Amino acid sequence: LAYNSMDLFSTEIQFTDWLAKQSAGKARGLRLGIGDDAALVEPRRGFQWVVTTDLSVEGVHFSARLHPPEAVGHRAVARSLSDVAAMGGEPRFALVSLALSRRVKRPWIKAFFAGAIGLARGHRVKLVGGDTALNAGQTVADVTVLGEVPRGEALLRSGARPGDQICVAGELGDSALGLRLLKASVSPRSPSTREAVRAHLYPEPQCGLGVFLARRRIASAAIDLSDGLSTDLRRLTQASKAGARIWADRIPAPAAPAGDEERDALLALALHGGEDYKLLFTVPLSRMELVPKRFNRTVIYRIGEIEHRRLGVQIVQNGKAVPLKAQGYDHFRIG
Amino acid sequence: LAYNSMDLFSTEIQFTDWLAKQSAGKARGLRLGIGDDAALVEPRRGFQWVVTTDLSVEGVHFSARLHPPEAVGHRAVARSLSDVAAMGGEPRFALVSLALSRRVKRPWIKAFFAGAIGLARGHRVKLVGGDTALNAGQTVADVTVLGEVPRGEALLRSGARPGDQICVAGELGDSALGLRLLKASVSPRSPSTREAVRAHLYPEPQCGLGVFLARRRIASAAIDLSDGLSTDLRRLTQASKAGARIWADRIPAPAAPAGDEERDALLALALHGGEDYKLLFTVPLSRMELVPKRFNRTVIYRIGEIEHRRLGVQIVQNGKAVPLKAQGYDHFRIG
């Protein structure tokens, strides 16, 4: 992004022009991007559209102190891309709305969009619209993403059946651990510390994997792990009218350098931490041979099995199956 | 909307269930609504999609003191519907994101959605998604609307040519006048006072007119009057690389009960007030015979003509043409 002049953004028209430049260029199906009353896009024949929108609120999803503006923009877009990934969609277009706190300075705005547009570009997603306003309170971003999926191929939460294997792509709990380290102002000495902080600030949505699982009809159901495994697994089982059993020792939690106590705390981060943006998906036993050990460099872990509904959601720990309570992030559970 | 129980919304899942119920039912092209990671919609063959998103920020677009929650929801959806109308699109689906101030009580939320969903229903628009979060600061809503338009028929800002007639559908300035009356706590004694307050609180997007103008290829360009005639006309002429001349005495400003001074103030509201959500469109002279005097009950006014670019945007008042400065609402012009 070019920092041409500090008197950019003195009017909304100039801001829109600047933004249009950052997201200029052609894209398949794009007829009209930023600059008119609305964007104009043309879907491919035989494709359905996946549409999702996600808020990123200062003080809830990020803090001005802990999160650099590039990370705020990156994470805001990652939230929506991850939803499209969970449906098996190929993300195509994004709209970014930003209600800016009056405390925010212009370099923050540019860095926010650098992060947002940077991640979008990496997934070949075009910024085609949005809105901006000044806000007396917190900064609030809302990102809408449109993706394409061939008719009838979308992955839903509701397709899991008893006997299906529960898989997760990549490690869990790193994002929550990274947030903890950021809060404690731990300087990133070790590679694993650095990795956790990076996982928190710059999560990578698994769009390629989602498309792979959908097109090859491998997964029976999928959801992205945005609010924590315990909460999101419950959402998947509820939608599928099923139960589930997972094994604690198969959950790819962050490695514990110390003793058992530390290990339990790290397992809790993997179960309830949230913001991992990894895909949780279920696979019928007969299709398990189609699941690769790794997708690109991401390890696929088999962590449990879909059960009958009456079993609820259980976790097997130290040889005992106990109910797994949904303790992940819930925006409407206050205090 | 049913007020079943005050312990609704104790968790996000319950809230989502409640919202899904409010927006339940089938719609053409809707494959999956609220409840999964994303909505799934299917476009009609040969149609393009109009996509827009608009913020409604407490303290900027509404205030908790002056605007009842139904009006906040109605206006938030109206902003996006009006953008789709300006492109000649038929609105189909909406996503509503709401970052709620912690000061807000549950009845406010329900009334907000009653207003939002009520207007959407009136335009046969289905709520298919959104997001919610609690916000330490102001309430912020962001509404995304998807509309359909036959390929190549969308109305753009950029199509106006010198000689085209400039038209506006309905009266201007009522919304700004209504806001003024609300601020002054004037009780709505006269019908015109009531009408102005109503125009402010419950603006009616002109989607039917937009579709009419696009399908019959009447308009060469269009924009919706969200930020005031002086600002939005400039946007249209800039996109069209043209100038414009409008006549003050043709602008359908609120009627002045008193003298000239009052009339000038009311004209200023019509020129710069904003939030009218009426369509401003241009029509080649040869197509003017196709413009009806009224569309449904809305009077169409011819207020000026597109000129060459070098003329800029002028207003003719008392026989003299003077430059019309863009003085409408601009979110990035502070103070």
User: What kind of sheet is the major sheet of chain A?
Assistant: 8 strands, mixed
Q: Which band does the percent of strand residues of chain A land in?
A: 25-35%
Distance between the termini of chain A: 40 Å
Oligomeric description of these chains: homodimer
Structural class of chain A: alpha+beta
Radius of gyration of chain A: 21 Å
Q: What does it look like?
A:
The structure is a homodimer of 335-residue chains. The first copy, chain A, is α+β, with helices and mostly antiparallel strands and 335 residues long. Helices cover 30% and strands 27% of the residues of chain A. In chain A, strands 7, 8, 9, 10, 11, 12, 13 and 14 form an 8-stranded mixed sheet that branches. In chain A, strand 13 and strand 14 form a beta hairpin. The first copy, chain A, is globular. At the A-B interface, helix 1, strand 2, strand 3, helix 2 and strand 4 of A face helix 1, strand 2, strand 3, helix 2 and strand 4 of B. Strand 2 of chain A pairs antiparallel with strand 3 (47-57) of chain B.
